[in-house]
Every structure is written in structure tokens, then in C-alpha cells.
Amino acid sequence: MGVTMLPTTLKADFPLTDTSVKLARERLRQFCAAQQIPIRACDSAALIATELATNAVRHAQRDATRAEFTLILTLCGRKLEIAVWDYLPSPCPRLQTLADIPLDAQSGRGLALVQSDAAGFTWSRMTSGKLVSAWIEVDTECPEQAPLGAQPPLF
Questions:
Q1: Cβ neighbours of residue 88 under 8 Å, at least 6 residues apart?
Q2: pLDDT digits (tens, 9 = 90+) for 47-72
Q3: Contact 45, 28 (CB under 8 A)
Q4: What is the pTM of this model?
């Protein structure tokens, strides 16, 4: 008989403000510390969460049906999924690689960075917005020391 891994999930809503990007990143780091996710994986997840949250704030701010975004973290086995749901039912972004972006471009590298750092990446357009997610592989069997000052999430 096999062992079934149940997912551990965090879901948090944030207003569409620049400050919320930092708060979402802090919640992710708290989640990683509580789940004993190694620092290297936590850093990758933080980069991904920062880029996805920034895109939600930057692009959904004006026309979204709800003035917030939702960060959803799901750890199941060795897979950590980082997802951001924004409530703007817009087309999903055009995907590029880092090599496609001019060196002097002032923006536009975020999703390319996410794709280069993640094991997988996807997006779904819904009637009430879009869900953009990426996932990474983590080794939770050999945790490194949690980041200093990290506190477990307050659920």
C-alpha cells in the first residue's frame, strides 16, 4: 500500500498595491520556513511570486472586477506551486524567452525569468480573471536553515 501525500496550501488576498508585492513575498517566505523548504528553493519561489504579483498589480489595477489578487501556494510532495489569481479577465501574456528580449529593454523580463527558473509554467483565462502559476521542485528531506526572522504563517 502506497503513501498518499496531501497538499499543504496557503491562500492569501492582497490589494492591488506595490506594497502588496512585498507582503506576498514575506508570506511566501513564512510558508517556506514553516514547511522547512530549503533556502535555495525558497529564493526561487520568492522570485516567481514577486514577478507574478507585480504583473497582477501592474496590469490588473485599472480594470479588474475586484481590486485584489490572490496568492496561492501549494506544496505536495516535492512540488511547490506558486500561483497568482487576478480578477482581470484579460488575455494571458505573450510568452518570451530571455533571449527574445532586447538587452536595453526597460521591462518585460518578468515572465521570462519565471519560465527560466521554474520547472513548469502555465496560465488559465477565466471569466472572473486569470490564474498564472509556476512550480518548482523542492527537496524537503534535507532542509537548510530557515531565513533569519522568518515566522510561520498565522492561519
A1: 59, 60, 63, 64, 65, 129, 130
A2: 999 989 988 888 776 665 678 999 99
A3: yes
A4: 0.75
DSSP for 41-105 reads HHHHHHHHHHHHHHHHHHHHTTT-SSSEEEEEEEEETTEEEEEEEES---PPPPP--GGGS-TT-
84, 103, 77, 92: which is closest to 12 by C-alpha?
84
SS3 150: coil
By mean pLDDT, which of 9-13, 72-76, 114-118, 121-125 is the weakest? Answer: 114-118
| Residue 121, strand partner residues | 134
SS3 108: coil
Quick one: pLDDT band at residue 13, thresholds 50, 70, 90? very high
Q: Is residue 82 left, alpha or beta, with left meaning phi > 0 and alpha meaning psi from -120 to 50?
A: beta
94 vs 54, higher pLDDT: 54
Instruction: Give the residue among 48, 61, 34 at the shortest CA–CA distance from 110.
Output: 48
Answer for the pair 69, 13: CB distance below 8 angstroms, yes or no: yes
90: which 3 cell numbers? 484579460
Asked whether residue 2 carries a pLDDT value surpassing 70, the answer given is no
